[in-house]
């Protein structure tokens, strides 16, 4: 028995955890929300929920034949990533009640395709909420919030190789938010880089990272220094240290717009895998420029 778990109603157990980072992937054709967090007993955990499907809304034109439009939307479905259902729902649009069609899909990547196809139907006024990211939609619908405590009914499953957590759980139902409470003890890592250029602003395709400095929880201080302007070992040493120290939170000054873009571009140039996440991946930028490190808050 685990310190944070109790028996649930369906034979599972209840896990209390503090959410660090949400993400998602597609496994075997099924979307999987991944909630990376810290359990009540301090273990780093991953909760996987495979029961949620992406959806968007089709707003019919005034006087549209809803049954006919429903059939037209369903006819857009492709066998490799089908539309699962099209159902009329009551919603408010610009403060006024409307009847919309809720279009539920099998996989998140298919939503933009179906959005564009639905837009072209003659009885469609607009397509709404198709630009909300899949895991954000999940969080909104289930009142899941980062940096807060939740309880979820789960069963423990085998931990896949390469995931840097203490345990992996399958959610049997969506998490439930808990009242605000202090966070668990977190490991925080702060870093900064300096680059060298003989003239002008450094460019990652030609100019090395000569130093990466790190300060972390517990009084940890490390520096990774280039030798004769050769920086491959600087990047490899930094990535290795992040994996070994395993921080929950990674911070820096202007790191989204300088440090991470420079490091990822430089690593690509040198053929170095900048693996600093909890699932074996490199930092990835969002459409708004934020660099995500899966499994860690950044």
Mind explaining what this structure looks like?
With 298 residues, the protein is of the alpha+beta class. The chain is 19% helix and 37% strand. It has helices at residues 66-74, 111-119, 134-142, 232-245, 255-270; strands at residues 5-7, 13-27, 30-39, 44-49, 55-60, 83-93, 96-105, 124-128, 149-157, 167-171, 176-177, 188-195, 209-216, 220-225, 249-251, 284-285, 291-292. 30% of the residues are buried.
List keywords for this structure.
298 residues; 4-stranded antiparallel beta sheet
What secondary-structure arrangement, pairings included, does this model have?
Layout (H helix, E strand, L loop, with lengths): L4 E3 L5 E15 L2 E10 L4 E6 L5 E6 L5 H9 L8 E11 L2 E10 L5 H9 L4 E5 L5 H9 L6 E9 L9 E5 L4 E2 L10 E8 L13 E8 L3 E6 L6 H14 L3 E3 L3 H16 L13 E2 L5 E2 L6
Parallel strand pairs: 4-10, 12-15
Antiparallel strand pairs: 1-2, 2-3, 2-9, 3-4, 5-7, 5-8, 6-7, 9-10, 9-11, 12-13, 13-14, 16-17
Low-confidence stretches: 1-9
Helix segment tally: 5
User: In what range is the share of β-strand residues?
Assistant: 35-45%
**Which assembly state applies to the chains in this document?**
single chain
Q: Give average pLDDT, whole number.
A: 94
Count of extended strands: 17
Please tell me what the overall shape is. Answer: globular
Rounded to the nearest angstrom, the radius of gyration is 23 Å
* Estimated structural class: alpha+beta
The percentage helix is: 10-25%
Order of helices and strands: EEEEEHEEHEHEEEEEEHEHEE
Briefly say what this structure is:
With 298 residues, this protein is α+β, with helices and mostly antiparallel strands. It contains five helices and 17 strands.
């Amino acid at each position: 028995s685990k310190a944070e778990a109790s028996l649930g109603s369906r034979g599972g157990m209840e896990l209390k955890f503090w959410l660090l980072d949400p993400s998602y992937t597609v496994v075997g054709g099924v979307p999987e929300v991944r909630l990376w967090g810290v359990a009540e007993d301090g273990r780093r955990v991953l909760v996987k929920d495979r029961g949620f499907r992406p959806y968007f809304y089709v707003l019919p034109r005034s006087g549209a034949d809803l049954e006919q439009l429903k059939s037209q939307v369903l006819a857009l479905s492709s066998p490799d990533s089908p539309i699962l259902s099209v159902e009329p729902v009551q919603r408010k649009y610009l403060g006024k009640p409307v009847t919309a069609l809720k279009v539920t899909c099998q996989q998140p990547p298919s939503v933009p395709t179906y959005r564009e196809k639905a837009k072209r139907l003659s009885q469609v006024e607009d397509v709404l909420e198709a630009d909300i990211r899949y895991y954000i939609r999940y969080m909104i619908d289930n009142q899941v919030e980062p940096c807060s405590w939740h309880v979820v009914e789960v069963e423990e499953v085998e931990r896949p190789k390469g995931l840097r957590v203490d345990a992996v759980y399958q959610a049997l139902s969506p998490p439930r938010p808990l009242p605000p409470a202090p966070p668990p003890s977190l490991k925080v890592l702060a870093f900064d880089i300096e680059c060298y250029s003989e003239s002008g602003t450094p460019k990652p395709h030609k100019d090395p990272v000569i130093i990466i400095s790190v300060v972390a929880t517990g009084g940890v201080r490390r520096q990774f220094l280039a030798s004769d302007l050769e920086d491959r070992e600087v990047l490899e040493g930094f990535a290795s240290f992040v994996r070994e120290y395993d921080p929950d939170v990674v911070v820096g000054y202007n790191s989204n717009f300088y440090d991470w873009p420079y490091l990822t571009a430089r690593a690509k140039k040198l053929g170095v895998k900048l693996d600093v996440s909890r699932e074996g991946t490199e930092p990835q930028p969002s459409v708004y420029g934020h660099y995500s490190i899966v499994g860690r808050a950044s």
